[in-house]
Every structure is written in structure tokens, then in C-alpha cells.
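Hi R.,

Here's the input for the NAP complex you asked about:
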Amino acid sequence: MSQLAGKLGIVFGVANKRSIAWAIAQAWHKAGAKLAFTYQGERLKENVEELAGTFGADTLLMPCDVTKDEDIARVFTEVGQKFGKLHLMLHSVAFAPKDALEGEFINTSREAFRVAHDVSAYSLIALARGAAPLMTEGGSIIGMTYYGSEKVVPHYNVMGVAKAALESSTRYLAYDLGPKKIRVNCISAGPVNTLAARGIAGFTDMLKHYEAHAPLKRNVLPDELGATGTFLASDGAGAITGQIIYVDCGYQIMGM
Ligand code: NAP
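And here is the predicted structure with NAP in place:
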């Protein structure tokens, strides 16, 4: 139960109670970690305030648009002042303009490509650079990815290319940060019905497809992502870094 007792963490990417970040934050909290949260803008503040408030009225909550270096710098300064150090960081953030997730990939605009990569992939590098100096006792950084990085999933389009960049960045960061005992991994989740997922055309069909074709004949549950997030954050995963861990009811092994 107290696998993460004494650990201090920061969570990027809670939008509402369906967010994967919230499932992992709840699991980290149950395992004994003390957490800080960020939210993108005023629009989400109330939601995140309400959720984070369930962990205690004094839970640290900060605005952060991950495309803004000054936001990132302020967040880690505040975390440094309040926590003094950091052990865990969850990157559960992604965005691509809606039209880029509907039509054909070949029509991806330069701007949609730039935005998708900035928000969904570069941000992991920028956040890791902010977090690392506080991870003086070692740490665990976790990103969220999807199988559309390696195989064509219709409509996932530029987000698949951005996830490929995220996964490759995970490996390079793991190499850079390994000597500091900081591990960097990604969880590759099967489809989960969240705000971001509903932006992908045909998402409901994706859920049905997984149910029909995954070896376990069902979709992954948010609690199961929480449990994997807790494992990767724990000392039990002490020798695991640079990896993409599939939590998708086995879908990734299928060839047909
Ligand atoms: P979600 O609840 O909508 O979370 C996505 C989060 O990213 C939101 O909090 C969103 O805030 C935030 N975000 C977007 N642009 C941002 C920016 N510039 N700065 C800061 N935050 C920003 O959806 P989710 O499904 O849990 O997604 C979390 C992660 O899991 C993503 O990386 C996603 O690709 C990945 N994933 C999801 C699935 C799935 O099926 N749901 C499967 C595999 C991987 P706003 O709402 O304000 O934009």
C-alpha cells in the first residue's frame, strides 16, 4: 500500500476525472506519494482544483501551458520552494488540431505538425529538463503514448508521428538521465474514453475493435493504468528505463 511513501511527484495533464493522469495520480496518492498538479488554463482550473483538493486543501496546483518555457520555469521554481526535491513526474499531455485527426495524413499542415510535436513530444524534454535538477535522490519520469506511433491507425495521423517522437525522446532522455538515477519510461495505453480521445474521428469504433481483437477481449481500465504507473514509479521498476510498456490487453502482439 505504501509503495511510494515519502515520494514527491508532479502530474501534468489532468483535465477532468476521466483523464488518464487522474487515474495515475489517484494510484500514486493511494501508494503514499505527495503530489503537485498543473492545469493548462483558467478553463480547467476549477475541475483540477476540485479533484486535487480531494488530496488535501494544501495540494500545490499551478497553471502551466507546456508550450511556454516561462510557465515551465515557474512551475519547477514553485515545486522546488514547496517540496525541496522531486521523485516522480507524469507527462500525460497531448494535442493536435482537430482537422488533423479527421482527414488524410497527407494533408497535415506545417502548423498542425508543429503544434502536435511541440505540445505532445517536445514538452517531455522541456519538463524533464525542469524536473531533473530537483530529482536529487533519483526519480521516475513517465509519459503516455499510443500504438499509433508504430503502426497506422486510421485518423490518428500526425499524433502517431508525434508519439513516435515522444517514444524516441524517452530513450534519449533515459540515456542522459540514467547516471543521475532518473528513469524515463512510457506507458502505451489501449484506447480509453477521455476528452482527448473523443477528438479522434471514429474513436468509438476503436474501442469496439480492441474488444473484438485484443487477446483479453476487452479494453484497458483506468485503474490498470494507475497500477502500471505506480509500478514504474516504484523501486520495483528500478532497473527499467527507456522502455515503452504496453497496457492494452495484449493488442500490440497481434498480427491479424
Ligand atoms: P485528457 O484527459 O484530455 O488529457 C490530455 C491533457 O493534455 C489535458 O489535460 C489537456 O489540457 C492537456 N494539454 C493539451 N495541451 C496542453 C498544453 N499546451 N499545455 C498543458 N497541457 C495541455 O486525455 P487523456 O486521454 O487522458 O490523455 C493523456 C495522455 O494519454 C495523452 O498523452 C494521450 O495521447 C495519451 N493516451 C491516451 C489514450 C486514450 O485512448 N485516451 C491512449 C493512449 C495514450 P486541455 O484539455 O486544456 O487541452
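One thing worth noting: The mean pLDDT is 96.

Cheers,
M.
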